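PT: before anyone asks, these are the final sequences, not the draft ones from last week. 390 residues across everything. Please model them as a single complex and drop the result in this thread when it's through.
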Amino acid sequence: MKRIAPRSGAALKLAKGEILKIVDPEGGQVSDFLAYNADDVREVISNGRTFDYEETIQLGRGATLWSNRSNPMLTIVEDSVGRHDFLLTPCSKATFRHFYPDKPVHRGCFGNLAEALEPFGIVEDAIPTAFNIFMNVPVDGNTGRLRVDPPTSKAGDHICLRAEMDLIIGITACSAYASNGGSFKPIDYAVTTDV
Amino acid sequence: MKRIAPRSGAALKLAKGEILKIVDPEGGQVSDFLAYNADDVREVISNGRTFDYEETIQLGRGATLWSNRSNPMLTIVEDSVGRHDFLLTPCSKATFRHFYPDKPVHRGCFGNLAEALEPFGIVEDAIPTAFNIFMNVPVDGNTGRLRVDPPTSKAGDHICLRAEMDLIIGITACSAYASNGGSFKPIDYAVTTDV
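LR: through. Structure below.
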């Protein structure tokens, strides 16, 4: 098991068939997650294609995460939480200025993902809306209003994603105050071939 | 007023301060809408940034549409419908095969946008989730399930968007069966400086 320190990020290669296990070791933390086709990073995870094909904005066990080219990228094969977000973009310097004008500006998950993915030729503008693991964003079905609540994940909760193609993955331990209830914590991960 | 024929698309330049009026001339039709920074088309409309800053998935009069670089691109200054979608990607050959296996495959809004935007140096992979004007996608706040209902727009209904920077715009008259209740219709538009 590898550890992502609070308010930082990592990138890794995940081969087709391998399983990425992402663990919330202390509970109440969010991990922003991105996936790119390892053979052509212009193919990238897409919330819109995923919402379209899965016919839901709540992705849990059994759901597929789709690419902008309408190919399956990952399948959620285990999920002890069932509450994740795919609506919101990674926190960034701009979101810190917008939402936390009295707090120090941080580069956020966006900056951490950009740095981690740069060696793979992935630039800032190629970072789309992330799959925000353990992030708890209730949506009012009548008004459309959303809010960011603390995650429902407890210590040891996890999600396992199986790669459906060779992938470059970016993941973070989230840097924003609202998404993790104001407590910055680590995220653990491991690559396995079995859940 | 210019007309976009059923199941086709168009692209245009919209200068900062100009207003694009998009009209549903017969009612019940959808127009997939994209915006790019005219000076650097790597800056593009972003559903995730918009949901983040507007704190809702239902965008209507007064709402701002934001870019992937956290800049305001457009403001909705008039809206006689108030029911649009920003969750789903443009229909494409792949979505026709998926949702309408018994119907002829059509290149859809995705193919129409790609052709219209190609002269501006915008490639297929640079097409994100579109702002789908008049598209009616109710979301169940408890389960996250979504469905595509016929638009609530009546003949003559319209939306007006003011450019907050110089833009390249892509718009369509939608090609999919579900989004417009199975009746393919035109979309009208005009560039003005006043609502």
